[in-house]
Protein 1
Amino acid sequence: QVQFAESGGGLVQPGGSLRLSCVLSGDFFSIYAMGWFRQAPGKQRELVASISGGGKTNYDDSVKGRFTISRDNAKNTVYLQMNSLKPEDTALYYCNADPSDVVGSPLEYGNWGQGTQVTVSS
C-alpha cells in the first residue's frame, strides 16, 4: 500500500505559477517511477509529466516547456513546478507511482490520493 498526499494547488491568474508537492508514504521504493496526472470536468484523466527512478523526465506536449517535474528521494516527495499557466491547465492534479521506469495509463492504477485543485482564472 502506498499513500499519496498532494498539495500546493490554488487559484492563479493566467501567466502565473504554482508548485505542487506530493508526499508518498507506505510501501514505496525510491526506484519507482513517479508521475503527475490531471483531470478536468468532462475530460479523461491524463498523464502530464513523469520522472524515472534515475531522473529521466517526460512531458505531455501540452505542458512541455512550461512544467518541470522533480523528485527528492530523501523526502519521499515529487514536485511539479508550473509556469506560464493557462486556463486550460485548470484541473484536479494527482500523483502516482509505478515500480517500472515508465508511468503508464491512469487505468492501470487503483490507488489514488485526494488530488489538489488548480484553477487558472479566465
Protein 2
Amino acid sequence: QVQVVESGGGSVQAGGSLRLSCAASGRAFSLYFMGWFRQAPGKEREFVASIRWTTTTSYADSVKGRFTISRDNAKNTVYLEMNSLKPEDTAVYYCAADVHASSTYWRQENYDYWGQGTQVTVSS
C-alpha cells in the first residue's frame, strides 16, 4: 500500500498563505497522478488541484490563480501553495495518489490512496 501523509495545515487570517506538503511512498511516485481534494463542514469532498507527470497541472475554478500545485519527484513530495486565502477555503485538505494515471483526474473515485487529511482554517 502507498502511504500518503499531508502536513502544513493550520489557521491563518483571510488574505494569508499556507503551504501544504504531501509525502508519498513508492519507487513509481513520478508516474502517479497526484491530487488535492478538500471537504468543508457539511459539504461533499471536492477537487482542488492535480499534477500529472512533472508539470501538467489542473485547478478547480474556485482556486485558480490563488493555489499552485507542484511536485518534487526526488523527494516523493507534492505541494499545494495557497495564497490569498478566503474563509470559504476552510476545509480538511486531502492528498491522494492515482497509481493508474486515469485521464479523469478530477474524479475522486480514480484515486487509490489517500492521506489522513490536514485542517486548514481561514478566519475573517
Protein 3
Amino acid sequence: QVQLVESGGGLVQAGGSLRLSCATSGSIFSVNAMGWYRQAPGKQRELVATITTGGTTDYVDSVKGRFTISRDNAKNTVYLQMTNLKPEDTAVYYCNAVLYQLYKDLANYWGQGTQVTVSA
C-alpha cells in the first residue's frame, strides 16, 4: 500500500521558519507531480505549492517569496521550506502526490497532515 507521511510541523513565533517533509513508501514505480495543501479550522483546503517532475513550481500568492517547495526524486520525497511565517499560515498541512504503481494507472494520494501553528 502507498503511504505518504508528513513531518516537521510545530509551534513557532511569527517570523520563524519550519521545514516540512513528506516521505512516500510502498510499491511506487514513479512519482509524478507533488504538492502541499493546507486547511485551517472552518476553511476550505487550499493549494499552497506544487512541483512537477521536471521541477516547475507554483505557489499561492500569499506564500510567494516566503515558501519554497522542492523534491528529491531519488527518495520520492517532497519538502516545503517555510520562512517568515505569519499567524495566517496556521493550518494543517497535507502532502499530495500523483504517482504510478507498476501496471496500474495514475492515482492521487494524500498524507495524514502535520499541524503548523504560528503565534503572534
